[in-house]
Amino acid sequence: MDGMDEQPTLREKAYASFTHHLLARDVRPGQFVSQRRLVELTGLPLGAIRELIPRLEAEGLIKTVPQRGLQIAHIDLNLIREAFQLRLFLEKEAVALFTHSASDDTIAKLLKQHRDIADAIQVGDTSPELEVHAQLVDWGMHDAFIDALGNTIISNAYRVNSIKMRLISQDRFRINGHVGPVMNEHLQVLEAIQRRSAEDAVASLVSHINGARDRALKI
Questions:
Q1: Nearest C-alpha neighbor of 207 from the set 103, 102, 88, 115
Q2: CB pairs under 8 A, 24+ apart, for 40-47?
Q3: 76 contact partners, CB below 8 Å, separation of at least 6
Q4: pLDDT averaged over the chain?
Q5: How much of the chain is helix, strand and coil, in % rounded to 5?
Q6: Residue 25: left if φ>0, alpha if ψ -120 to 50, beta else—which one?
Q7: Which segments does the entry list as coiled coil (predicted)?
Q8: Most buried residue, 91, 141, 177, 180, by CB count within 10 Å?
Q9: Which of 183, 195, 194, 189 lies closest to 105 in space, CA to CA?
Q10: What is the pTM of this model?
């Protein structure tokens, strides 16, 4: 019984470790890896890795290539288009609901986070620490919209897509050097939410996401 109770924990640890190393770029998009390499990377037993692989394949994070092994998801134009399309579908509905359901305190907190960063940029702060903080605030805002839906199925789909979005971001359009414009775009969304204008919030969000998509596609 103990072994049965332990296995789901090992699978979750393996998944968390793999995605951590993937986003840390310890393995790269398009790279081929062996099961042995994944054991070394995660520090978990081969059995947990073998149980992990079907989940990663189902989520599109790896694929098995005959005669070559396991390949990390490759960042190509098709992945970019599909990831952004899914993100847009989910976040449009989410931000509309968030506009009506979020508390004044929640909105005020998000606005303050963004305005503090925008103010820091205005006085010349271009430090790596600010960029790291801005990226976390960026992701946090979008996650807050999705969380407001209270839908586990959507949250899980969004979580997997977020991993792909972050890989795309690292490969194509990192926030580094663009903190000011990104914060300003976010503020347009948040100020519309503060006015409780779902129509304006959705329009600003669509413009923001489409702009990021076009940068990723290098349009």
A1: 88
A2: 41/17, 42/13, 42/14, 42/17, 42/18, 43/17, 44/10, 44/13, 44/14, 44/17, 45/10, 47/10
A3: none
A4: 91
A5: 75, 5, 20
A6: left
A7: none
A8: 91
A9: 194
A10: 0.85
Q: What six digits make up the tokens of 170?
A: 């690292």
Residues 85-125 have pLDDT tens digits of 999 999 999 999 999 999 999 999 999 999 999 999 999 98
Could you tell me whether strands 32-33 and 69-72 are parallel, antiparallel, or unpaired per DSSP bridges?
antiparallel
Contact yes or no for 129/176 (Cβ under 8 A): no
List of domains in the chain = 2-72 (1.10.10.10), 77-217 (1.20.120.530)
* CB-based contact 165:117 (threshold 8 Å): no
Are 131 and 175 contacting, i.e. CB atoms less than 8 angstroms apart? Answer: yes
Mention every residue, 6+ apart, whose C-beta is less than 8 A from residue 18.
38, 41, 42, 52, 56, 61
Quickly state the pLDDT bin for 215 (edges 50, 70, 90): confident
| DSSP code at position 69 | E
The alpha carbon of 142 is separated from its chain's Cα centroid by a whole number of angstroms, namely 9
